[in-house]
Design a protein that fits this description.
Elements: E1 3-5, E2 8-10, H1 23-36, H2 47-67, H3 74-83, E3 85-90, H4 97-104, E4 110-112, H5 119-126, H6 132-146, H7 168-186, H8 194-205, E5 215-219, H9 227-233, E6 238-243, H10 246-259, H11 267-287, E7 292-296, H12 297-302, H13 304-315, E8 327-328, E9 331-332, H14 358-376
Parallel strand pairs: 3-5, 3-6, 4-5, 6-7
Antiparallel strand pairs: 1-2, 8-9
Length: 379
């Protein structure tokens, strides 16, 4: 059945009753919106919030199943798979992956999925026990919620609100499932067809028009340690890993924990993950230099124009003024970094003034700094 816990939700589509109206969606949407507009990020870590998420997502998936999948044209999907390259933005939490994703969001040659994809690292393991179609419907529901819970945009709801006649989130789910089923029937990636299928569906419901983009973008913090899996799933790909000074990244992470009401942070695991991130970067820089690039967070903030110009050259796409302005689906965002903001906007979080405990600073200096130095040293 559909469950909820402190770790989020778990959707079992077989436990949902199909419905012939949007009534349940509208009631659930009103309840969920009250949480999304609530004060501070702490609200989004409570059980009542996740219960509201579960009820809304279940209602959306149930309605979508009752209407059935929307299957795209075969020729159009083949063109999408053969023409549009996956672009993966990876890095440790608080390294700056959100900032880079949002700077690329408005480029006309990129279709950027909302939120954190986390397909390989979280979603695929979470739903691995569900059979065929149930797996696809469940993940489609997760992606629908990613289009709602957008921390950088106060109003959230990227596709607008549902009404009695239709819900854009139901249509998103139907297109994810339809495209995934079509890809699975014509490609050798089975259940993993959900990943490129979600990207195609997002372009359809978010207003994408011809010509096709050069890339579809997925931001998945932590995926750098599982790029081998991505390499086996995707026909082709490019990856950009954002790297940040270990000391600054951990201070920022500590502040983020506090903002969510979590006052204890696992030091050892944090240090190990920081070290592994730099080792992963070194490995893939050597293994796939034409498809893998690192971006230094400090350089992105200090010299954004030059850094983005170099990145666009690596991606072989045209320069665009859009990459100087962080957005999500074309909407200005309040960055949670020290990146310069647009007039009239403010940074969501203050500068990170946390002082790391001495033992943690020593751990970083001994364990992480030697492998990080080639990437973060310099002006």
């Amino acid at each position: 059945m559909t469950q909820v816990s402190k770790h989020g939700l778990f959707i079992d589509p077989n436990a949902l009753l199909e419905t012939d109206s949007n009534e349940e969606i509208l009631k659930a949407e009103a309840t969920l919106d009250a949480f999304l507009q609530g004060p501070g990020p702490f609200v989004r870590s409570t059980m009542p919030y996740w219960q509201a998420v579960q009820i809304w997502t279940s209602a959306v998936v149930a309605r979508a199943r009752s209407l059935g999948p929307v299957v795209p044209d075969t020729n159009g999907m083949e063109q999408w798979l053969n023409t549009v390259t996956p672009l993966l933005i990876v890095g440790e939490p608080r390294a700056g992956t959100s900032l880079l994703r949002n700077l690329l969001d408005g480029h006309p040659q990129i279709t950027a999925l909302p939120g954190e994809g986390l397909y390989i690292t979280h979603l695929r393991p979470k739903y691995r026990t569900l059979p065929g179609d149930s797996y696809i419907w469940a993940l489609a529901g997760e992606w629908a919620f990613k289009a709602v819970n957008v921390a950088e945009i106060p109003t959230c709801w990227l596709l607008g609100r549902s009404d009695a006649a239709q819900s854009p989130y139901v249509e998103f789910v139907r297109r994810i499932v339809g495209s995934s089923q079509l890809i699975a029937n014509h490609a050798d990636n089975g259940r993993d067809s959900i990943w490129p299928g979600a990207a195609w569906a997002w372009r359809q419901v978010s207003g994408g028009t011809a010509p096709l983009p050069k890339y579809w973008l997925d931001r998945s913090p932590g995926l750098q340690s599982r790029l081998g899996d991505a390499d086996r799933i995707l026909r082709n790909w490019k990856t950009v890993q954002v790297l940040r000074s270990p000391d600054a990244a951990v201070r920022s992470l500590m502040q983020a924990h506090r903002d969510y009401g979590q006052y204890r942070m696992p030091w050892l695991r944090t240090v190990v993950r920081q070290r592994r991130a730099f080792l992963d970067a070194a490995e893939w820089q050597e293994r796939a230099p034409a498809r893998f690039r690192t971006v230094r967070y400090e350089q992105l903030v200090a010299a954004p124009d030059e850094t983005m110009a170099e990145l666009l050259a690596f991606l072989e796409i045209d320069p665009s003024p859009a990459v100087s302005r962080p957005t999500v689906s074309g909407r200005d965002v309040s960055p949670n970094t020290s990146f310069p903001v647009q007039p009239g906007r403010t940074n969501k979080l203050r500068e990170h003034e946390e002082t790391l405990p001495l033992a943690l600073r020593l751990l970083l200096a001994v364990v992480v700094d030697p492998v990080a130095r080639p990437f973060v040293a310099g002006p």
